[in-house]
Amino acid sequence: MTDTASDKTDTSALFGTGDFFRRGNYAPVTDELTEFALPVEGAIPAEVTGWYLRNGPNPREATGHWFTGDGMIHGVRIEGGRAAWYRNRWVRTDSFEKPFPLYNSDGTRNLRASVANTHIVNHAGKTLALVESSLPYEITNDLETVGAYDFDGRLANSMTAHPKICPTTGEMHFFGYGNIFAPHVTYHRADADGQLVVNRPLEVKALTMMHDFALTPNYVVFMDLPIVFNLEVAMSGSGDMPYRWDDSYGARLGLLRRDDPHGEVRWLEIDPCYVFHVANAYETTSADGDALVLHAVRYPELWRQDGGFDADGVMWTWTVDLRRGTVTERQLDDRVVEFPRIDDRLATLPARYTVSVGEGNLVRHDLVTGEAAEHRFDGTGGPGGPGEAVFVPSTSGPADESSGWYLGYVYDPARDGSDLVIIDASDFTGPPVARIKLPQRVPYGFHGNWIAG
Predict the structure, then answer these.
(1) Would you tell me how many other CB atoms lie within 10 Å of the CB of residue 196?
(2) What is the pLDDT of residue 309?
(3) Span 370-409, pLDDT tens digits
(4) Whole-angstrom distance, CA of residue 377 vs CA of residue 411
(5) Which residues of 13-39 are buried (b: 16+ CB within 10 A; e: fewer)?
(6) How many C-alpha atoms does 271 have within 13 Å on its Cβ side?
(7) The pLDDT of residue 286
(8) What pLDDT score was predicted for residue 397?
(9) What per-residue confidence (pLDDT) applies to 68?
(10) Are strands 196-202 and 185-190 parallel, antiparallel or unpaired?
(11) Could you give the CA distance from residue 133 to residue 158 in angstroms, rounded to a whole number?
């Protein structure tokens, strides 16, 4: 997702400031469509059967920040080597038809006041549309909204848009933040059957914008970083995100043992920065001792003056010496990237590859060698390019990261339209094996997932 040359004065490569989200392929679409038997260039692999669903802001009227637009799901159903249908639907939250404020006059939150615009995940038979300020909203795989989901009344908090599902236990780990009064952050865990079994408050110094976190076989890793709730911005009525960079806050990682979820959190200081998205985390054992490794897209600072993106994010690695309690930080690459994804089967384990959105391309980092490869989209130069890519594993080949496909929406400015592109993971830099032609443009958005079956 790159910007036009005229936008370079006030935008970074992947996000921007001002009204960038009202122009080009950031601009919303107005129609909810259902189209069947989509045309395909190339051949869809027969093993690819399921739903690709992606969420993102699609405001129905003017909004002060890209992050606050109404959520819209764009989905494609693939089966038997064909693209059976495309649908796009707004998430009909409780506040969709009649918006109401996120906070009550007493400082408590309306957890059903939601735009549900950030992510979509499937766990224990439920497909949930997420935004970190509110309760999740359940939808069907045909994109119809079922309603707010509170785990049978056990969740009285918001839910992060980036829950982590452990591939070994099937548990879903998540947290909620946003309370003006302490506790500002609460950690939650649902078992493999979807029952909420852990609700544990965390002690942080202030209400920080905690967007993502990490999971390893033995630890939950929280990121307490210096973008902090700003009352002056919140009261200004600007519609901007009410968070700003705070030089005095500091930055730290918090390690909580999974086998002792109510135990002590071990906090370790790191250099000030901000992280929207974690690629993966895992543990290692060597002659030097046990370590925890975290890969994420790091910004040196953000939102010092406003809610715009005035710095670029690049891939970094943090290595925690678990015995000494020290953290080593290292930049992995200088390419500007965002939205890193791995083969989800390797979450909590040492995945070799992470694929991110670069400047008009996809970038695959080899986390073993440190090298990077690019998949470029010929014919989609200028403001065109890809969104986040998800990995779909092969069901018949080897169970590794090269046996499968990457799927994601790609915008083509030449025809002002979008494709769902399928890339062979074993030939990442080669041409796509298939392009599913969509009946309308899919605006740039946030996150999606593949639901097999």
Answers:
(1) 17
(2) 73
(3) 999 999 986 544 446 899 999 999 988 788 999 999 999 9
(4) 10
(5) bbbbbeebbeebbbbbbeeeeeeeebe
(6) 12
(7) 85
(8) 78
(9) 86
(10) antiparallel
(11) 6
State how beta strands 40-42 and 137-139 pair: unpaired
User: Given the DSSP bridges, would you call strands 361-366 and 353-357 parallel, antiparallel or unpaired?
Assistant: antiparallel
- Please check whether residue 399 is in contact with residue 6, taking contact to mean a CB–CB distance below 8 angstroms: no
pTM score, two decimals? 0.94
The neighbouring-strand residues paired with 126 are: 123
Predicted pLDDT at 18: 58
Residue-wise pLDDT for 123-148, tens only, equals: 999 999 999 999 999 999 999 999 99
Amino acid letter at 400?
A: D
pLDDT value, residue 28: 94
Q: Rounded to whole angstroms, how far apart are CA atoms 56 and 54? A: 7
Give the chain as a 3 state SS string: CCCCHHHCCCECCCCECCCHHHCHHHCCCCCCCEEECCCEEECCCCCCCEEEEEEEECCCCCCCCHHHCCEEEEEEEEECCEEEEEEEEECCCCCCCCCCCCECCCCCECCCCCCCCCEEEEECCEEEEECCCCCCEEECCCCCEEEECCCCCCCCCCCCCCCEECCCCCCEEEEEECCCCCCCEEEEEECCCCCEEEEEEECCCCCECCCCCEECCCEEEEEECCEEECHHHHHCCCCCCCEEECCCCCCEEEEEECCCCCCCCEEEECCCCEEEEEEEEEEEEECCEEEEEEEEEEECCCCCCCCCCCCCCEEEEEEEECCCCEEEEEECCCCCCEEEECCHHHCCCCCCEEEEECCCEEEEEECCCCCEEEEECCCCCCCCEECCCEEEECCCCCCCCCCEEEEEEEEECCCCEEEEEEEEHHHCCCCCCEEEECCCCCCCCCCEEEEEC
The Cα–Cα gap between 350 and 43 comes to 32
Q: What end-to-end distance do the CA atoms of the chain give, in Å?
A: 30
Low-confidence stretches of the chain (pLDDT < 50) are 1-13, 16, 380-383
Give the residue among 318, 408, 306, 294 at the shortest CA–CA distance from 361. 408
CB of 177 closer than 8 Å to CB of 207: yes
CA 131 – CA 67 distance, rounded (Å): 9
User: What gap in Å lies between CA 223 and CA 413, rounded to an integer?
Assistant: 37
